[in-house]
Amino acid sequence: MKVSTKWLNEYVPVIDLDRSVLAEKIARTAVEVDDDYRLDEGLKKVVVGHVLSMEPHPDSDHLNICQVDVGEAEPYQIVCGAPNINSNMNVIVALPNSWIGNHTKIKKSKMRGIVSMGMICSLQELGFSDSVVPKKYADGIYILPSDAVPGQTIFSYLGMDENIIDIDITPNRADLLSMRGVANEIGAIYNHNVKLPHPVISETTEDEINNYLTKVSAPANLAPTYMMRIIKDVKIKESPLWLQARLWNAGIRPLNNVVDVTNYILLDYGQPLHSFDYNKMGSKQIIVRLANEGEELVTLDGEKRLLKDTDIVVTNGDKPVALAGVMGGLNTEIDSNSTLIALESAVFNPSKIRKTSRRENLHSEASMRFERGINVATVGEALDAAAQMIAELGDGQVVANAIKVNEISTNDRIVEITTTKINATLGTNLTENVIKDIFERLGFGVQLESGTFKVAVPVRRWDIEVAADLIEEVARLYGYDNLPTTLPTGPTTPGHYTDKQRLIRQTCALMESAGLSQAISYGLTTKAKAQRFTLEKAKTTELDFPMSTEHTTVRMNLVSGLLDDIAYNAAHKNNDVALYEQGRVFFRDDQNDRPREVEHLAGAITGLFNQATWHDSKTVVDFYLTKGIVDYLFKELGLENVKYVATNAHEEMHPGRTADIYIGGELVGFIGEVHPNILKEYHLGKTYVFELDLQKLIDMDKKEQIYQPISKYPKVTRDIAMAVDKSISNAAIIDCIKQNGGKYLTDVTLFDVYEGEHVAKSVKSLAYKLIFNNPEATLKDAEVTEAFNEVVEELKKKFKIAIR
């Protein structure tokens, strides 16, 4: 909400207050202040000019040579290329050596050989945003009113000399979404009297509203109050400059005298209004109802909307003419031919307005106020003020009477609070008189009986409902800086991680020690990505009102998010990436609408794991490097009985380079290369991923690691090379060796794999190193030979190997 202190000063004296001091006071007492500024800061020597004459530039087909009266003895010659420039009009002139927007200096110059003494400016060139410049002048210069005096500074004409304070309204303080609400707040902060003008409406006695509207209907659950007036014989034209200035200072584009008035009243009262061209209504009825499913409405932005049966619409008894509280319909738009105006003021169901604006992505000034709440006490007054102003600015007449449906209660809310409660909560010793003064400054009615305040809160402060709200009001107006500072009291207890928290942190530390960097991805993704790389079958959980099409579904895996991260890096020429993520995924079954939250761990690696150096060769990421990282994790966590089983069950993974991971016979994850089709979608090279059900790892029994001193007795090694059928896995052979190697077998390592010449096509040659060690004595050769022979015999028996 952009607040002009000049406008605010009409209600409460602030004009003598320093802008920055006022902004700081608002921020410390009420709500955050985003910025405070003046549009004319840094600008100088920009004045009103009157174009006396104009002739075409001899060397240009679009430039004109203008003689401009700028209040000097002689007119200035200025070359201008604006398409709407003409003689006998008042314009904005930047004189030689002036400064305009974007810190641009204007000098005397020549344009194609013709001297130009300055520049005729558009609003954008003064620093105005394109979004607030009237469409009529969007591609040309701005034309000033005929009463503008040549030579006078332009800033006061355009409202650029006003101090603007941009306040950031929190959802609970929607009363500050109006100038009158801000005036009440400033009056309370500075203990100044607030004087709010109230409209005096002048109605014609020759006509009444029943001649135009025979039926107005609005269910109370959709529109707790609904009012309409009719203004006839209106002439549509530009609003006066003072009104346009107030709108663009507030960030709103001026359109015409009718729409501008509704926006002005919206800023003044915080009451959204909507104006209809009555002659386009096609009916004498106004019916507010829920839309029919699939019903269509083209809104003022030209978009065709397919409505839901939860949307509130204003109809002519048959067809929708407005999406209530959000945006009007194009079929009843005010245009240059409009003469008869139907003006609406209402309160609409906030939750339905919120759902509609979110679904349709229509976040208007009106919908924001309906969602957060409006002052129900001024719904009718705002309507009267707007109707009278439209009549005055449009040379029209207000038809007698207004139609009012479902008038809402405007009685004060009574909230009780004691002095003792206030002081006990704030740690203060405030007297009853101080507290009473604060409530009265806020404009609340106060009765004090035996230490208990009965506070009558007006409906303009609908955020105050309970005693705690009154305590907050006392605290902020007394001053947070004035509250006493105390240290917390009570017993202190040492904090520590739970076993689950400790293991999760240990897991992250292990991933980082293995060379992976942590990534944090969105918990929301697309439905297609959510259903990929899943460890279990489940239903998706989709949002009713997603922020964007890329964030519609709660994630069911972590790999998709990591691939997005790697793709982002690859797009920025970072092709060697190793990432992991620890987080929750969400699975939903048919029996429960609420999804289960499961802790997961995932990793994704692509490119080079290590770059080549003068003494080391580069390390290219492959399946075995990725598997080594996972093995390292399991070993450090104390997890045993790990098996990798080749699988084709994951369609997003390469069918020949993927394995499921089992611990003690229970599936805990998968590992492998991403399918080429998926990699093509992400524009990536070979990428290897793994995903683990971390919750299962947390819950599993773990072998406690007991560190022992290095044995002082020598190790004994035996090598064995064997020809074995290709269908037999390395894991199965190692398990067999460990089970039959005796108590002194400490390690088994595969150090050679060979397929090719001198070996049958159906077999492969594997070579293993077996290490034996007795920590208490030197091993005898006979003991090692006996254990080794036992291993060989069992391998022959179980796998029919041939020793090479």
UniProtKB/TrEMBL annotation:
Source lineage: Bacteria, Bacillati, Bacillota, Bacilli, Lactobacillales
Protein name, UniProt field: Phenylalanine--tRNA ligase beta subunit
Residue ranges annotated for the FDX-ACB domain, each copy included: 711-804
GO molecular function: ATP binding; catalytic activity, acting on a protein; magnesium ion binding; phenylalanine-tRNA ligase activity; transferase activity; tRNA binding
Any one Gene Ontology BP term: phenylalanyl-tRNA aminoacylation
Subcellular localization, as worded in the UniProt entry: Cytoplasm
EC id: 6.1.1.20
Free-text cofactor note: Binds 2 magnesium ions per tetramer.
UniProtKB keywords: Aminoacyl-tRNA synthetase, ATP-binding, Cytoplasm, Ligase, Magnesium, Metal-binding, Nucleotide-binding, Protein biosynthesis, RNA-binding, tRNA-binding
Listed Gene3D superfamilies: 3.30.56.10, Bira Bifunctional Protein, Domain 2 (3.30.930.10), Ferrodoxin-fold anticodon-binding domain (3.30.70.380), Nucleic acid-binding proteins (2.40.50.140), Phenylalanyl-trna Synthetase, Chain B, domain 3 (3.50.40.10)
SMART domains with a match to the protein in the record: B3_4, B5, FDX-ACB
List of residues binding Mg(2+): 463, 469, 472-473
Every B5 domain range: 410-485
Keyword Metal-binding assigned: yes
Family annotation (Pfam families): B3_4 (PF03483), B5 (PF03484), FDX-ACB (PF03147), tRNA_bind (PF01588), tRNA_synthFbeta (PF17759)
Keyword Nucleotide-binding appears in the UniProt entry: yes
SUPFAM superfamilies reported for this sequence: Anticodon-binding domain of PheRS (SSF54991), Class II aaRS and biotin synthetases (SSF55681), Nucleic acid-binding proteins (SSF50249), PheT/TilS domain (SSF56037), Putative DNA-binding domain (SSF46955)
Entry GO terms, CC: phenylalanine-tRNA ligase complex
Cofactor requirement: Mg(2+)
Organism: Ligilactobacillus ubinensis
HAMAP family per the UniProt record, alphabetical: Phe_tRNA_synth_beta1
UniProt similarity note: Belongs to the phenylalanyl-tRNA synthetase beta subunit family. Type 1 subfamily.
